[in-house]
Model the fold of this input.
Amino acid sequence: MKSFKIFMAIAAVLPLLLSTTAAMAQQTTVDSALLDRVSALEQQAAEARPGEDHLMVAGVVTMGLVTGKTTNTLGGVVTTNRTSSFGNADTYEFSPMLLWRHGDKFLMEFEPSFNNDGLGVNWADVSYFAAPGLILRAGYMVIPFGIYNKRLAAGWIDKLATDPIGLDIPNSTDYGVEAMGGFPLGNMKWSYDVGVFNGMQLLPDGELQGVGINDNNINKTFSGRLGLLPFSNSSLELGVSALTGKVGDEGSPFANARANMYAFDLSTVQKINPFSVNIKAQYNIVNVDRQNYVNPGDSTQTYSYNNHSTSAFGVISLRPSYVDDKVLKNMELSFRYADYIAPANSAWGSNTNQVTEGLAYWMNWRTVLKLTHETTNGNSTVNQIIAPATGNTKTDYWFIQFSILL
Amino acid sequence: MGILITGVAILLVSISGCFTSKEVAAKTGVQLWAENCSRCHNTPSPAAFSAEQWKTVGMHMQTRAQLTDVERDKIVAFLSGK
Done:
């Protein structure tokens, strides 16, 4: 009987002992999992802390198809070339942009670009946010001249598939330093953007090209833009730009040649129910001091002409943003006219006008599909005594383009 | 150079501080977002980037559109959900 009581006691205690041991083992397992989880969360929290530095990738991808024909008429002879290809300078670009913010004062921007010209760099610069209204920048950047190249050229911003003609002078990007800022002025607002750059090089025929990183002379080119937004809702911006600099090679007959350029721009966005109306315009003037240029037909001879050119564009876009239809409100119709007047009697150039119209469909705020049609008409201004005539050239192209902000 | 920058900075801050109207000063981040971003492109969705990314984007856009510092800060705060 005593043995039975002992057995019963053990039988009663044993499950308790076993369950306690199991519970302890389970507790150990739970504690371990909990600690692992806490450790992982701590690591995530450490990684999520803002810190002082921040690196991100933005940029733009643009691709598409261009198809059309070019017709040249010279001395009564008409020649036509047809083309259809995926991509050219306007319809293909893969440009991831690295933005590296170091604290609140420094921003590094670097945008490599793969396009029709191969692999290049759109800009690579460092900005220092020195004080309210004062940003200093150095490196390779878009120069402050007009509004198109700095603000409107990106494929995900431009509502048409092409750039307007005549904006390649002055060069859109250059090496230099820049200061900029914006300020309120009562109900208005104004901004400045000024810089010093390597500038351009005057070629023997009077054309201009960017010099790149190695300046061709010891002088620097100054370029700047002043902007005024006269209304408190920032719906209108007026800008005036100026650029001046010597463009001749050091020690060459062009050493004292100076280029002076001016630009006037306008930008407005208005609500005219049910449309959002967007108008942009820019007018450029380019003057180069009169020089004796090398005759391309006889390099021992020189010739001269008034090296003055102008270019202009105006674009209007209509988007029915305030209708209820979800498809219709994402469509945008655009019409652009551009014009380029070349120097008369040079060995190059054509007076050209360009008409571009297009329909864009916004898949979201930063993704767009465009259908664009563009015709250009160029009449040669070449002095036929010194260079062969190039006649009249007409182009008629269609573009299908997709663009997205990364 | 430092003195020059400081002097220019003080001058610019003085100018900007003196001429801000009450109407402009009272503008909210969402107002400034709607008014300024659309000057060049569609207004971005706040969901497109994180708060830290918006801070970086805000600095980038200030160099493009010459936003005032107040505009940049208010727009970034709105887009960051603050």
Observations:
- Chain A has a mean pLDDT of 91.
- Chain A touches chain B through 48 residues (CB under 8 Å).
